[in-house]
Write a structure and sequence with these properties.
Structural class: alpha+beta
Strand order of the largest sheet: 1-2-3-4
Shape: globular
Number of domains: 1
Length: about 120
C-alpha cells in the first residue's frame, strides 16, 4: 500500500514537471523552464526552475552539442533535473518535436493521457 502511494506521488510529480513552460532565447542560445501554472499567472514573474545554456561550437566539426544547466535546488532534485533535460532532448531534439509543438501551439490536439502513457 505504501509503495503504491509512493508511486502515485511520483507520477503526480512527473506530471507537474512535464507540464512546464519552456522559454527559448535563440540569440543567446539558452532556455529556461518554469512551472506552467506560474507562467500562466504572470510570465514576467514566473521564476525559472532550470536555466540551460547551449553551446554549438563543436556541432559542425565534431557533431557534438554541449549544454550547461543550473536548477533551483529548492524546486528540483538532481534526478528531476536530469529527467527534465532528457525529456527536453527527447521532445525538442528529435522527430518527437510534433508533440511539443502541439502542446505549445495546438493545445486542443494535445492528448495529455497519451503523452503520459508514452513518457519515459
Amino acid at each position: 500500500m505504501e509503495r503504491e502511494m509512493e508511486r502515485e506521488m511520483e507520477r503526480e510529480r512527473i506530471i507537474s514537471l512535464s507540464l512546464s513552460s519552456l522559454q527559448f532565447d535563440a540569440k543567446h542560445s539558452m532556455f529556461a523552464m518554469t512551472f506552467l501554472d506560474d507562467y500562466k499567472r504572470n510570465p514576467a514573474t514566473a521564476l525559472p526552475w532550470i536555466s540551460v545554456l547551449l553551446f554549438g561550437d563543436l556541432v559542425e566539426s565534431k557533431q557534438l552539442g554541449l549544454m550547461r544547466a543550473e536548477a533551483d535546488e529548492k524546486r528540483l532534485t538532481t534526478e528531476e533535473t536530469q529527467r527534465l533535460l532528457l525529456l527536453v532532448r527527447k521532445y525538442y531534439g528529435t522527430d518527437a518535436y510534433d508533440r511539443a509543438w502541439a502542446f505549445n501551439h495546438a493545445e486542443r490536439h494535445f492528448n495529455l493521457e497519451s503523452y503520459l502513457e508514452s513518457c519515459p
